[in-house]
Amino acid sequence: VPAAPPAPLGCDDPESEAAAEVAVNYINGHSHHGYKFALNRIEDIRVVPQGPNNDLIFLELDLLETSCPVLSPTPLVNCSVRSFAEHAVEGDCDVKLQKLDGTFSVLASKCHSHADSGEDIVKVCPDCPLLVSLNNTEVLETVAAALNAYNSKTTEAYLRLLEIGRAKIQVFPAHVVVTEFAVGATNCSAEQAKANVEDCQLLPEDQSNFGFCTAEMVKRPTQDLRVDCQMYGHQVPATVIPLLSRVFHPTGQDTS
Amino acid sequence: SVTKRAVAEAAQHDKVPRPVGFVPPPPPCPGRIRHFDI
């Protein structure tokens, strides 16, 4: 009697979790913008045998954005997931893997990320500030002012904006703009930049030094600007990351 | 003669008696939520 086909894999089986871990590491390692994502739930798994010790595995994953930028060397296990009240961003990913002789490898992945619904958050937390579009005028002004302020005080390299990652505007009780953005060190000192900022270019890949800044601009009742930048130091990039400075929307983004 | 039994009756008779306290296994998917559901 032919052997009964193996029972379908459950989404919480150890093998499914192992495949999901490989998939999430691949997605974070090949993501060029925004933040690292952590696994929240394995929605579905489908195994298509291809032959002895050779399976195709189709995963549907539900991910949640963490507070670690993709450029950060922080291991994912140390990255905290954005809470519901912080206005979480969810990622839905379809990943195709191959399991050959017990080893998983990702063949393709497609993800769509989107911020949680603002209405749901306001219902639970009326005073929680919500994410705003990253090309909001106040956001752009805050990032420019924060980067200028940081560069005017630093004794290190002059920093250029890579991308804005996240922004929120609180209007009550004070009017506050909070932003997070990625930066890259240039070949200029801050002094040199004062002379001719056009000459200041991002360092070449073999010397690149990226970092991340958080800025808070209080507009009312009084004006105040706080900015803090953390540089990661030179890292050998796992994948070439386009250094174009981009502004993209938290509302949704497709990556493949 | 073959008579068509009411579905409920048939289902009643065909239902496999389950041991007392039987808990059906959780559906294989979707899996558990690790942080929170949005």
Primary descriptors:
heterodimer, A: 256 residues, alpha+beta, 6-stranded mixed β-sheet, 45% strand, B: 38 residues, mainly alpha
Task: Explain the layout of strands and helices.
The complex is a heterodimer of chains A (256) and B (38).
Chain A lengths: L13 H16 L5 E17 L2 E16 L19 E12 L2 E13 L2 H7 L5 E2 L5 H17 L3 E14 L4 E15 H6 L14 E11 L3 E10 L12 E2 L5 E3 L1
Parallel strand pairs in A: 6-10
Antiparallel strand pairs in A: 1-2, 2-3, 3-4, 4-11, 5-6, 6-7, 7-8, 8-9
Chain B lengths: L6 H8 L24
- Helix/strand-derived category of chain A reads alpha+beta
Helical content band of chain B: 10-25%
Number of helices of chain B: 1
Task: Write down the oligomeric state.
Answer: heterodimer
Largest sheet of chain A: 6 strands, mixed
SS element count, helices of chain A: 4
Query: Can you tell me the residue ranges of chain B where pLDDT is under 50 for at least 5 consecutive residues?
Result: none
Cα-to-Cα separation, first versus last residue of chain B? 58 Å
Q: What Rg of chain A do the Cα atoms give?
A: 22 Å
Shape of chain A: flat
Q: What is the number of strand segments of chain B?
A: 0
Structural class label of chain B? mainly alpha
The proportion of residues in beta strands of chain A is 35-45%
Give unreliable regions of chain A as ranges. Answer: 239-251
Mean pLDDT of chain A: 90
Number of strands of chain A: 11
Could you tell me which chain pair has the largest interface and how many residues each side has?
A: A-B, 24 and 11 residues
Structure description:
Chain A starts with 13 loop residues before the first helix and ends with a strand. Chain A is built from four helices and eleven strands. Chain A is an alpha+beta fold and 256 residues long. Chain A has helices spanning 14-29, 118-124, 137-153, 190-195, and strands spanning 35-51, 54-69, 89-100, 103-115, 130-131, 157-170, 175-189, 210-220, 224-233, 246-247, 253-255. In chain A, 34% of the residues are buried. In chain A, the strands form two sheets. In chain A, strands 5, 6, 7, 8, 9 and 10 form a six-stranded mixed sheet that branches. A five-stranded antiparallel sheet of chain A has the order 1-2-3-4-11. The longest helix of chain A has 17 residues, at 137-153. By secondary structure, chain B is mainly alpha-helical. Helices cover 21% and strands 0% of the residues of chain B. Chain B contains one helix and no strands. Chain B has one helix at residues 7-14. Chain B is elongated and about 40 Å long. The mean pLDDT of chain B is 72. The A-B interface holds A 8-13, 16, 38-45, 62, 64, 81, 83-84, 88, 90, 116, 120 and B 28-38.
